[in-house]
């Protein structure tokens, strides 16, 4: 008989999924992004003149605008051509000779310089990428894209987002944008520098969970026969959604009342219990090691009064919330004891505190969470810290890294390496991103989220769960996101939000106006406040308008 504290035993069929989230469909307001082309040549003498493309500057309020200076320059050039055609023909021939010779020299010199960054080998996708097969062996990690000014020349990018990128509300900006199809870095601001991610960290935890546990894995809470007559032990398996049986936030979640009903039936059916009622309940939460609160988190306001995060224990009920039907509510200080008391009450027994389940004890009942894929969806849509912290701990245990906060880094990185993710330079303190001590560079998300977009190794679950600009989750208009001029990108940005003291973030995929798909991450760091969200939205909307014509200027 297996150890009742082992959370990775036989799987049970999945139960009903969470109630799907509604989508507020909104129209997309388009604005022009075409660069202004040069006027046609006025005479045959000017036919060999190279076309001149005016740079496009994207404004956060009025969209792309063409510069007027090149138009004035063209007027002067055409006037000169009409007046001195022979001189222009001769000058054109000389210029052509110099360009051909100079181009040959430049091509030769480029072969000795830094290599063009390797493409991320990402096929073209629609807004809803299709699934791909899981490889049979551990993939080789894909290198991260880096900005490379000396790379081989490509088509000139002329759409600048310098205005919104210099918004003071962004504080110190770290950002990177890559073309998902080619892997080319289009925009980079300190993209290789590690920084706090805030809740964008949840996408990393989600990927590690898919790799280590699998999208269909369910978290078990069990009850076994105790070592004393009349004793039942409830064994926590790390399910953050377990309910008492009263209405709560997590729809379709398992309940203590269901578990108690199973226990009563199993107890009555066992002849060895004849004449012995259930009199005592003990709670075993030894699956997770202490402490229950990460040292770098701010207990005020996170545990209370805001209540975004519970103390992390392997057994809790109703998220240990004072108001279980709310996403956030003040949390208690003894989640294990509170759950144990509720379970004892359901059984009509006395709660006798913490204890251990005997090895090989007879199982009296089990309830299971929704599949990990459903938990990931809830946590990414609503930025649920507690769910992601419990999942991160289960990943660490599954990967053999340990069962404490200190094991999360090793657990996550080991799980991600299994699916070919380059984790070099990452510092992972927690599963939710609540810690300001996490360090991940934007360039990591460029490569990682491209894999998510391409649905590699089951990571498409993450893409499907990301909030959508102006429509769902923490990017919905009810959160004040992508309003005003930024509404141009409504429905076209799938991304995870993040905010902690000193860091506001957004990372995901932009389905740009020109049809290209861009993977991006934006960090607003330092002396920043809630207004950074609008500045991030403005920059993201400008990137959407530029599309593949985005320049790094």
Structural class: alpha+beta
**Main sheet: strand order:** 5-4-13-12-11
How large, in whole angstroms, is the Cα Rg? Answer: 29 Å
**Main sheet summary:** 5 strands, antiparallel
Percentage of residues in strands = 5-15%
Shape designation: elongated
Number of helices: 13
Helix and strand run: EEHHEHEEHEEHEHHEEHHHHHEEEH
Number of strands: 13
Secondary-structure map:
Layout: E1 56-59, E2 63-66, H1 69-83, H2 85-110, E3 159-160, H3 162-165, E4 172-179, E5 185-189, H4 201-212, E6 220-225, E7 231-235, H5 256-269, E8 280-284, H6 299-302, H7 335-347, E9 350-354, E10 363-368, H8 372-382, H9 385-398, H10 408-418, H11 442-453, H12 460-465, E11 493-500, E12 503-511, E13 517-525, H13 532-546
Parallel strand pairs: 1-3, 7-8, 8-9
Antiparallel strand pairs: 1-2, 4-5, 4-13, 6-7, 6-10, 11-12, 12-13
Describe what this molecule looks like in 3D.
- This protein has 553 residues and is of the alpha+beta class.
- It is built from 13 helices and 13 strands.
- The strands form three sheets. A five-stranded antiparallel beta sheet has the order 5-4-13-12-11, sandwiched between helices. Strands 9-8-7-6-10 form a five-stranded mixed beta sheet, covered by helices on one side.
């Amino acid at each position: 008989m297996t150890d009742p504290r082992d959370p990775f035993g036989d799987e049970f069929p999945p139960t009903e999924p969470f109630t799907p989230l509604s989508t507020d469909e909104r129209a997309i307001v388009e604005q022009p992004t075409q660069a202004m082309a040069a006027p046609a040549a006025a005479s045959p003498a000017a036919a060999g003149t190279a076309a001149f493309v005016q740079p496009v500057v994207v404004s956060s309020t009025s969209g792309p605008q063409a510069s007027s200076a090149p138009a004035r320059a063209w007027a002067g050039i055409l006037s000169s051509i009409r007046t001195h055609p022979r001189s222009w023909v001769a000058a054109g021939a000389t210029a052509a000779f110099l360009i051909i010779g100079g181009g040959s020299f430049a091509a030769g010199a480029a072969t000795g310089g830094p290599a063009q960054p390797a493409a991320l080998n990402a096929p073209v996708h629609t807004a809803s990428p299709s699934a791909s097969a899981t490889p049979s062996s551990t993939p080789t990690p894909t290198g991260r894209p880096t900005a490379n000014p000396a790379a081989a020349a490509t088509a000139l990018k002329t759409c600048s987002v310098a205005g919104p990128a210099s918004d003071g509300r962004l504080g110190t900006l770290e950002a990177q944008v890559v073309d998902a199809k080619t892997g080319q870095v289009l925009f980079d601001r300190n993209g290789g520098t590690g920084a706090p991610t805030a809740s964008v960290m949840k996408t990393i935890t989600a990927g590690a969970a898919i790799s280590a546990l699998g999208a269909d894995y369910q978290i078990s809470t069990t009850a076994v026969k105790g070592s004393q007559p009349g004793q039942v032990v409830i064994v926590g398996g790390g399910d953050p959604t377990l309910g008492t049986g009263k209405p709560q936030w997590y729809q379709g979640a398992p309940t203590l009342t269901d578990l108690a009903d199973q226990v009563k039936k199993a107890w009555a059916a066992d002849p060895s219990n004849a004449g012995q009622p259930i009199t005592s309940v003990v709670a075993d939460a030894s699956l997770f090691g202490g402490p229950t609160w990460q040292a770098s988190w701010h207990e005020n306001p996170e545990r209370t009064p805001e209540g975004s995060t519970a103390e992390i224990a392997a057994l809790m009920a109703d998220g240990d919330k004072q108001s279980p039907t709310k996403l956030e509510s003040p949390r208690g200080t003894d989640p294990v004891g509170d759950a144990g008391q509720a379970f004892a009450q359901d059984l009509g027994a006395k709660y006798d505190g913490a204890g251990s389940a005997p090895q090989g004890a007879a199982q009296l009942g089990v309830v299971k969470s929704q599949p990990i894929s459903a938990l990931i969806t809830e946590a990414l849509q609503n930025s649920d810290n507690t769910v992601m912290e419990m999942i991160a701990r289960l990943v660490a245990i599954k990967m053999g890294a340990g069962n404490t906060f200190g094991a999360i880094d090793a657990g996550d990185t080991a799980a991600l390496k299994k699916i070919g993710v380059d984790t070099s330079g990452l510092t992972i303190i927690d599963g939710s991103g609540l810690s300001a001590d996490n360090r991940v560079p934007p360039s990591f998300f460029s490569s990682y989220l491209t894999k998510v977009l391409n649905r590699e190794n089951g990571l498409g679950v993450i893409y499907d769960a990301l909030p959508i600009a102006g429509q769902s989750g923490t990017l919905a208009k009810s959160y004040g996101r992508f309003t005003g001029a930024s509404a141009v990108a409504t429905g076209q940005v799938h991304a995870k939000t993040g905010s902690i003291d000193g860091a506001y973030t957004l990372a995901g995929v932009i389905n740009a106006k020109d049809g290209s798909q861009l993977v991006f991450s934006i960090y607003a760091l330092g002396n920043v406040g809630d207004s950074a969200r609008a500045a991030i939205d403005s920059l993201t909307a400008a990137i959407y308008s530029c599309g593949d014509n985005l320049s790094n200027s």
